[in-house]
Amino acid sequence: MVGKTESQNGAVKATAAPAMNLESDLFSNFSFKSFKLKTKQQELLLRVSILGLVYILAFITRLFSVLRYESMIHEFDPYFNYRTTLFLTEKGFYEFWNWFDSESWYPLGRIIGGTLYPGLMVTAAFIYWTLRFLRFAVHIREVCVLTAPFFASNTTVVAYFFGKEIWDSGAGLVAAAFIAICPGYISRSVAGSYDNEGVAIFALLLTFYLFVKAVNTGSLAWALASAFGYFYMVSAWGGYVFIINLIPLYVLVLLITGRYSMRLYVAYNCMYVLGMLLAMQIRFVGFQHVQSGEHMAAMGVFFLMQVFYFLDWVKYMLSDTKLFQAFLRITVTSAVAVGALALGVGTASGYISPWTGRFYSLLDPTYAKDNIPIIASVSEHQPTAWSSFMFDFHILLFLFPAGLYFCFKKLSDATIFIVMYGLTSMYFAGVMVRLILVATPAVCLISAIAVSATIKNLTSLLRTKSKTAVAGSSKGTGGSKASSKASFDQSQPFQKNGAIALLLGAFYLLSKYATHCTWVTSEAYSSPSIVLAARGAHGNRVIFDDYREAYFWLRQNTPPDAKVMSWWDYGYQITAMGNRTVIVDNNTWNNTHIATVGRAMSSYEDEAYEIMRSLDVDYVLVVFGGVTGYSSDDINKFLWMVRIGGGVFPVIKEPDYLVNGDYRVDKGAAPKMLNCLMYKLSYYRFGELVTEYGKPPGYDRARGVEIGNKDIKLEHLEEAFTTSNWIVRIYKVKPPNNRW
Amino acid sequence: MAPKAEAAQTLASQSDASQSSIDPLFHILKIFPYSIIRPPRLRLKLPSFTLPSPMTVFALVLLTYFMVVSGFVYDVIVEPPGIGSTQDPATGSVRPVVFLPGRVNGQYIIEGLSSGFMFVLGGMGFVLLDLALDKNRAKSVKVSYASAGISSIVIAYIMSMLFIRIKIPGYLR
Q1: How far apart are CA B59 and CA B66, in angstroms?
Q2: Residues paired with residue A619 on neighbouring β-strands, in sequence order
Q3: Of A252, A318, A398, which to mutate for an interface test with B (greatest number of B Cβ within 10 Å)?
Q4: What is the domain count for chain B?
Q5: A85, A98 in Cβ contact below 8 A?
Q6: What is the pLDDT of residue B32?
Q7: How far apart are CA A518 and CA A516, in angstroms?
Q8: Partner-chain residue, chosen from B122, B125, B167, that has the shortest CB–CB distance to A387
Q9: Which of A13, A554, A637, B62 could cross-link A578 (Cys pair, CB 3.0–4.6 Å)?
């Protein structure tokens, strides 16, 4: 506590510094005065404690499902990630990198080493090995479950530094607090949601922060750090395409607005070249950075930067402006022409592949609906309605335009970046619900700017009285002091009261935000999806653990080389928990294979039996929600099976299953619907069951009708297992009859 | 970045330019066909490209934000009706339904637009508040800005809460 005297407005008390300098005895210094901190240290203590609390808050608020149920992996995709992480920790990195899995996509198999993004698994394995090295005997499942909350806490720290870079440290703190509890981020990073996005958002924000820092400072070290951040992002998630298109777009905007500088040149060149080389180390990405249409924008801007540098150098060498103007015109024209020619030749010859369906449907949202039913069928890929925005952002939706206003008021390289990130990510969030996640950091940062600027204005109003007394810092007053002094003296108490009232209002709004976020997290985003909960008749909570019951039955009661056919949603879970080979799973890389399964499910039993024999299927698994009222079952997904199957095999026609355009399962349903394999397997023996008091037997609680065909006989399959609430039903495929 | 060309060049400067130009295409064109054909005397000006002011861009951005947040893309793809309708079971009359019930991610067009308007109104409230705290204005203007800003924020927040409570019946319970 050696004192530097500070000339701030009189909040500094003289510490016991002189006394300490004189006496060296520890005990006599131990007076209460020595605990008094200077303003700078008070501020530092405040900031560090706020960040610490926010860090802990971000972790804790994601633990609802662990406390309510147990520490388990949620949903579908995380089970694949868990299985691969388990493999990595058991067999080592070399085996993992070269793994060919014959247990999924029978009989094709899947090259797992070359078709996944290893970042998440390697991170979790690294944390696991570190903890093991420190002699903490954790199980890999606990590490996997808690990876996402841990990285969410790290994201808040990065958000603080990013906010500090863009605006000031106040905005950074508010941004960290917003991001810690924002439901848009929590939805994909609760404990148990062991998915790529949990790590990827951290990598995304880190890359952006390092790049903006590099542009602001022009330092090579920061640029290289951002390249490594980009490498981490490429290894973690397919959404890295967003980074490799946003950063060139940002550079282009800076060039257009006349903000070209040596800092920008150094930052972008280093980041692009090194980032591209590092990204090619991931087998799944391969040479896409030079071959795929989605990455061409970055290359184009790279060459444009070189042209800019060249022109700058020529301008410096030439002294004749007219000559330089002519030279400028020629160079720009020829550069654009050469670039367009190269792009045309590359695309025409097929070397540069066009945009893939997934990303093209972001630019043209109607494309997936008409052309690619698999992409259109996923509920997360639907466009966003206003209520989803409100649910995930709450008051940030008001603060976002206000923050944009403040950014436009004080334009700089960094604020231009955050504005572009916010606008592009909000547009994509409007196209696809799932991408609200990518927009969340931008919205939190821009809203934090609005909050910080507004509160700064209000508190400067509160401080005006003390400021006019002390001729000093001009932190917010500015302008002419003389005239303001006169008017202030009259309306000062009113202004002060008004400012206090407004500050209380702001505090009220922010507390409502916190309440909303906690409620949304608790009610909507903390469900494991594999364990269902409902309220019983007396208000008690009833838990349906049917999925795990069925998978465990499969694991224990079927031969180890049995092959299970089910719809692709459940593939990852069956391989991870049931440990059996599946025909199709969530990777959905082979549309024809999925269409074959869809065709089998929608055909009559005889044709389906042919298909199942050709695929060596031993067991069929269906999910049925008629007894419990569970609405995400296979009968509700059935039309997608028909559409996808019909997309490849024209023998399956969707109108055959509908009646006047209506999808029905009761007496008035189409005859093909009443006799197809899916119907038979779902409703086998259901006609004898009374599900609800006062309703006839065979009343389907999910559809709300009595089923049409109650007397179902199965010829080629027999029922093997039905879970206690009839949610999962497993059938065994019988071998063909003897010739006699 | 684009170079601005001079308007209505005189003959003298034209010949000057032709002597000192290093543009190869210009020299080729000078020989063929324009040594045979006489180029007409025109007064042309290349359109000069000036960047719009930040606040203009901000206005455009606000418009785009309004469209995105109202669920415009949802409206284009899913094509919901402008307003829903339900039949009263007792009387048989058809009553309009403004908010699509049952799911979070679904809307009718009108409800999307009105919610989007509320969000933009709230944002503008904060902007007005900032304008009110700017020192270089007349006092009455500042007071009216401040009151408009505060009332905008309050109205927008209350209406948004009302909308979400109607849409999701179990909200905050």
Answers
A1: 11
A2: A564, A732
A3: A398
A4: 1
A5: no
A6: 80
A7: 6
A8: B167
A9: A554
A601 contacts: CB under 8 Å, gap ≥ 6:
A567, A608, A634, A638, A641, A645, A676, A677, A678
For B9, half-sphere exposure in the C-beta direction (CA atoms, 13 angstrom radius) is: 15
Task: Tell me the chain B residues in contact with residue A400 when contact means C-beta distances shorter than 8 Å.
Answer: 65, 123
**Region class of B172: left (phi > 0), else alpha (psi between -120 and 50), else beta:** left
Integer angstrom CA distances of residue A220 from A276, A304, B70: 16, 20, 43
Q: Are A40 and A46 in contact (CB under 8 A)?
A: no
- What is the tens place of the pLDDT at every residue in A517-563? 999 999 888 888 888 888 777 888 888 999 999 999 999 999 999 99
**Tokens 């919610």, located at residue:** B115
Neighbour-count burial for A589-599, b at 16+ CB within 10 Å, e otherwise: eebebbbbbbb
How far does B129 lie from chain A, in Å, by closest CA? 8
* B38 within a domain of the structure (yes/no): no
CA-closest candidate to residue A554, choices A540, A536, A566, A567: A566
The complex scores an ipTM of: 0.84
Dihedral sign computed on CA atoms, order A98, A102, A106, A107: positive
Q: Residue A6: what are its φ and ψ, rounded to 5°? A: -120, 145
A215-265 pLDDT, tens per residue?
999 999 999 999 999 999 999 999 999 999 999 999 999 998 889 999 999
Name chain A contacts of B65, Cβ cutoff 8 Å.
Answer: 400-401, 404, 423, 426
In a domain, B93, yes or no: yes
- The residue length of chain A stands at 740
The token pair that represents A262 in the structure block: 């040596």
What is the residue range of B60's domain?
A: 56-167
Nearest to A586 by CA among A195, A223, A266, A268: A195
- Regions in chain A scoring below 70 on pLDDT: 1-35, 465-492
Q: Are B151 and B124 in contact (CB under 8 A)?
A: no
Asked whether residue B35 is assigned to any structural domain, the reply reads: no
Sign of the dihedral through C-alpha A389, A390, A392, A394: positive
Q: Which residues of A touch B150 (CB under 8 A)?
A: 502, 505
Measured N-to-C along each axis, helices A77-91 and A140-166 cross at an angle, to the nearest 10 degrees, of 110
Map chain B to HEC letters: CCCCCCCCCCHHHHHHHHHHCCCHHHHHHHHCCCCCCCCCCCCCCCCCCCCCCHHHHHHHHHHHHHHHHCCHHHHHHHCCCCCEEEECCCCCCEEEECCCCCCCCCCCHHHHHHHHHHHHHHHHHHHHHHHHCCCCCCHHHHHHHHHHHHHHHHHHHHHHHHHHHHHCCCCCC
Low-confidence ranges of chain B (pLDDT < 70): 1-20
> Coil, strand or helix: which one is A619?
strand
Among chain A residues, the shortest Cα distance to B128 is held by A402
Structural contact between residues A69 and A191, judged by C-beta atoms closer than 8 angstroms: no
Amino acid at A339: G
Dist. CA A624–CA A630, nearest whole Å = 8
Distance in angstroms between the alpha carbons of the first and the last residue of chain A: 99
